[in-house]
Each structure stands twice: as structure tokens, then as C-alpha cells.
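Record minuted for completeness.

…
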Amino acid sequence: MRQSIQTILLIISLSFIFLSCSQQHSKHSEINIIPKPLNFEKGSGNFILNAETKIVYPDDSSVKQVAEFFNSQIAVPTGFKLQKGNEHESTNVIVFKINDKETLGEEGYELIVNKESIVIIAKKSNGFFYGMQTLFQLLPPEIYSSEKVASEIQYEIPSCRITDKPRFAWRGMHLDVSRHFFPKEFIKRYIDLIAMHKMNVFHWHLTDDNGWLIEIKKYPLLTEISAWRVNREDLPWRKATAPPKPGEKADIGGFYTQDDIREIVQYAAARQIEIIPEIEMPGHTSEVFAAYPELSCTGEKLYVQPGSYWPNSDIFCGGNEEVFTFIENVLDEVAELFPSKYIHIGGDEADKTEWRKCAKCQKRIKDEGLEDENELQSWFIKRIEKYLISKNKQLIGWDEILEGGLAPEATVMSWRGVNGGIEAAQQGHDVVMSPGTHCYLDHYQADPDFEPKAIGGFTTLKKVYSFDPVPGELNAEQAKHILGGQGNVWTEYISTPEHAEYMAVPRMAALAEVLWTPKKDLDWDNFRHRINKQYQRFDIMDVNYSKGSWKVDIQPAQQKSGFSVVLESEQLNPIHYTLDGS
């Protein structure tokens, strides 16, 4: 039996090594750009970036901002401060040209590199920004250094012509800062990672049961009380439910001042990223009632939850006009802080137990001719949508906002699978696909026995790469309503910036490619080849990325005469093992 097991293991191992080696030597494009461009043509020779290189751009403030931004980025590792040239420059020059080519769309670019010059053609500033992101990936990885590197490095860029544009308009990443607060500098670093991957939306989850993280001038108790909870960090999240002890100080949490937010919004805008704030309602609001209990159905003063809070029946009172005064005042300040098209209102997991018992809510149902509490939620959301429209904002919410009838102009973010998104698109509503199965990056990404504690799930790099935001159930007209997709990082089990990076990266890279590159051009083996160069860039940037995809998954299976063992890895490198520990 021992000999047969060894034989089986040897056959499997040799087969896997053969496959791995053949994959490594298969024909790959010579570029290592993520996300993969639409079209790439390789030329001959290289452009050499040096201290004498000039930069030329038109008299357009938004294009000038992009050019100067990348000039400042280049200066850090190289020490080169490129001088502005004139339109007649033709050698050793980087040129920005505005062109309304329809083939490039709103966000596309063309990048032409030869020995003498680099030309970037785009319609708008975001196209120029993405063209420069591609240019950075054509340079040695040291270009990503946050300090000056050795002078002997030659910054060569291979001659090529790249034509590129994204598949989807919404290419997003989310971060929950309510469960655990992250400092302003990390929010900026997270935005840098989003920008590096040509993603353009940062969904900022600012309020939830575990903390209210945004300063609202009209309601100071939200940051004096609702932003803080007692320390239960020594317990697993699901067990961290004990209420505060007498005299125990609530010192876990934090918040972003309005000046912080303006600074971060400006920082993101310079990187062509729109920040979508999320203010939860009508549920996931118990932290509000720690400061303003009169806004709940019961009027009971609560404490900010230190851990898991489920089932959560605390909810804004749908029959109390003071609630809508509060929400509108909050939204006034939020709308002023965030120039985004959208404001996310949550709308998920709203337990309606208290509404069923609340006299004010039942009166509202009767007065408005509503059928039940689901229709009360729909009425609630529609009222908020009407107010947001008056502020020139559009409402977006999790797919539970479909319950009781969808608000007329609402956009749906589908997280409980794709069915909510399908239903919304079939009704003619715009949709962002973010199903937990493929887009929840707080899930395990490798064997849980060897990974940091996570909330559950199992979403590998390969699984993220297999995500298609457009379900086959939609016809061509309905599919137009799929704006794109988004990766979500919930932080119940993520308490440090290093851990947040570990969960987001490199799965962010896989998602970015899915949302940018045409479906027909997606190639898992080719992506596995290119991600290795991205790892080099992450190393230079000191990103705490996960190496879970490098780990070997061992799957034994009982057979009639013995058993087999399958060894798998998401990397292309061969797997080696010994039977005697040598």
C-alpha cells in the first residue's frame, strides 16, 4: 500500500510539475500590465527617461494637473524634475495630446512610445491619467519607490503602441471604517492602490452599528458619543458583545473631521477617483441612538456596539418626522463635502420588528395607504431619494431597497448574489454588481488553517478573476444597466492597515482586470504570468499583499484501492515535495 501511495503521489507531482513548466514557457505577451490593455503592439528599441526629458501638455487645467501630478511622482525615485517643453519639441519628450477619438470613449487613451518620444492621446484627464499609469508599469518597478533609488538604474520604456479603454464605467473598491477605524494616511494609501489599478470609485462605508465616523456639525454628539465604543478587541468579533461595565471608558474608534474629508476627496480627485459616501438607513443605525435615542421607535438610549450585533432590530422610526429632519440635515452636510454623483444610503438588513410594534410607524402605514412594513421601507427610501434629487444627488443602496418597490431613480448595488441586480436591470434601473461570492474580499483567500482570522467564505484570486458582472439572464438592452462591479472589504476581523492591505491585495488586481478588460481577452494563465511583475511593484511599495495564491492546496481523495492526492497552486511555479523529509 505504501508503495502504491508513493507511486500515485509521484505521478501527480510529476504531472503537475510538467503542467507548471509548460505553462511557464507558454507564449505570453511581453508586457506585464494590469489591467490588461485592449490592444498592444510592440515596436523596436526603447525610450530612455532621464533628467533632460521634457514634458509637453496643452493649455488645459485638468490635463496640466495630470501631467504635473506624474511629474512629481517621477521625481521621487529618479530625482528627475522634468521641465516643460513646447509643442515643437520632438526628441526626448513626453507629449500629452487631446483628441476626441470616438474609439477611445470617455476614459480611453492611446500610448505611443518610440526611441525619441512618448505620446499620450486622450479625450479627458482620466484617459491621460490611465495612460500614465500604464507608462509607469512599462518602467522598472523601482519607479514605485517612495524614496530616491540608486542612480545606476536606467529607466527604459519599450517601444510600443497601446490603445486602451475600460469595459465598465464603475470600477470600485469599498472599505468599512465603522467596524474598525483607519487613519487618514491609510485611506490615502488605499486610494493610491485603487488608482494604480485604474479603478475609479472608492465606496467609503462611514456609519454602522459599531461607529459613526463622519463629523456632522449640526449633531456633535455623533462624534462625541457615536464614534466610540468600549474595548473588546481581545475577543472574537462574534463574541465581543458584552455591554460596557460601570465606569468603563469607550476609547475604541475615531472619526474623520470635515477638513479630513475635504483633504481626502481632493486627494482622490487628483487620482481620478470618485468617493461615494455611505450613510446607513433605515437599519444599521443603533450607534445613532447612543447619542439621539429619540430617533428610534423605542426611545431607548443604547450603547455603541463593541462587536457583533445580530439580530439587529434597532431602526430609524419611520413614523417620526424628527427622523427625516435629522437625515436631511445630515445629508445636507454630506452632499456639501462629497461632489460625487451618488450618495449610498445602505438600506440593507433592516429588521422591521420594531416597526410592527411602533404606533407611529403603524399610523404612517395607514396614513400613506401602505400594505405593510416592506412598503414602509420603500416609502422611506423614496422619500430620501426625492430629497437627494433636490440636492442634485442620486441614491444608491444595497439590493434590499428592492423590497416593497424600488425608488424611481435608484441604483442598486447587488450583494446577495446577482439576483437583485438582475431584477433591478430588468426593471430598467442601473446596477453595480458586488456579489459576496466573488467580491467580498474579507473572505478567506487560502486555506483558513494558515490564514489570518476572517469572517468566513472562501474567495481565491482565481475566483475573483472568474467574476463576470453581466449575468446571462439579461438581454442586450438590460445589460446596458450594469454599470460595473466593486470589491468590498468589511472589517469585523480586520483591525489594522496591514491586515486590510493583505485582504484587498492582490485580489483587487484581479477584479480591476475583470472590470477593465474585454471579457474575450481575459486569460487566467496570462494573468498569473503578469501578476508576478505586480508583486515586484508591491514589494517596492512595501504593500502587505497576500501570498495565499502561492500556497499549495492538498486535496486527498479515497479511491477503491488506496487514495489519490491532488496538489494545486494558483501560481505557475512547479510544486516540489518529498516523502522522506529530505
Notes: Residues 1-29 have pLDDT under 50 and may be disordered.
